[in-house]
Design goal:
C1GALT1/C1GALT1_chp1; alpha/beta; 6 strands; 234 residues; two-stranded antiparallel ribbon; Spore Coat Polysaccharide Biosynthesis Protein SpsA, Chain A; globular
């Protein structure tokens, strides 16, 4: 029997959201991670926080904050996890679908312990493809450049039907066929590798995550996914 992959979840938050967004993560999808860590500039009772030490606590300094969090998480748990999932505190994750997705990959192929190890090494050795001289910057873009430069191959997260599993927005923005989110967010066209659509065909039946999910919405999703039973359907 194949052993369940060990999952480390690293969630970025701020002191302003410890008792709202972070707690909602803690009480919903976060409890299904094998290890759940938060990155913030302050500690908080009930949360396992890696304390960042950047010049300023705001969105512009996420490159510094998330880099520090990743390095410390790897230092503490290297050898104790197979895969690392990095998320914001307004992300909702279906952990079972995430584990199903990564179980089809060798842990040397994606954002796994070995990839994180190469990434951390690139920070420490100050490789030219991975600029850590600045605290400010778009962390997702910089992380992608560092991962690619360190030899990590980017995978295709779509399912067998070509439907995506990871989403920039909450379910309502994706599922409403009359929503114009794709047209309102021009940056999506510049950064998205694949086209996507809205409506019921927007999303894979094995969807992994949605972004911009409010704390209230997290509890709604938790109920719909894990408690609600539709009667009379085989």
């Amino acid at each position: 029997m194949q052993q369940r992959p060990r999952l480390l979840c690293l969630v970025t938050t701020t002191p302003d959201y410890h008792d709202t967004k972070a707690i909602a993560v803690n009480e919903t999808w976060g409890k299904r991670c094998d290890t759940l860590l938060y990155v913030s500039s302050q500690t908080y009772d009930g949360l396992d926080v890696i304390k960042s030490n950047c010049s300023i606590e705001n969105h512009d300094y996420l490159w510094c904050k998330n880099r520090q969090g990743l390095v410390e998480a790897h230092r503490r748990y290297n050898g104790s996890y197979d895969w690392l999932f990095k998320a914001d505190d307004d992300t909702y994750v279906v952990i079972e679908n995430l584990l199903h997705l990564v179980s089809g990959h060798n842990p040397s192929e994606a954002i796994c312990a070995e990839a994180v190890n190469r990434l951390v090494t690139s920070f420490e050795t100050k490789r030219k493809y991975c600029d850590i001289s600045e605290e400010k910057g778009p962390d997702d873009v910089y992380f992608a450049a560092c991962l690619e430069g360190s030899g990590t191959v980017m995978g295709d997260d779509r399912d067998s039907l070509g439907e995506p599993r990871f989403f920039h927005f909450a379910p309502d923005a994706m599922l409403n066929p009359h929503d114009t989110v794709y047209h309102k967010k021009a940056w999506l066209k510049n950064y998205a590798t694949y086209n996507f659509s809205t409506g019921m065909q927007c999303c894979s039946s094995s969807t992994v995550s949605f972004h911009y999910v409010t704390p209230d919405y997290m509890y709604v999703l938790e109920f719909l996914l894990y408690k609600l039973k539709v009667q009379g359907i085989d």
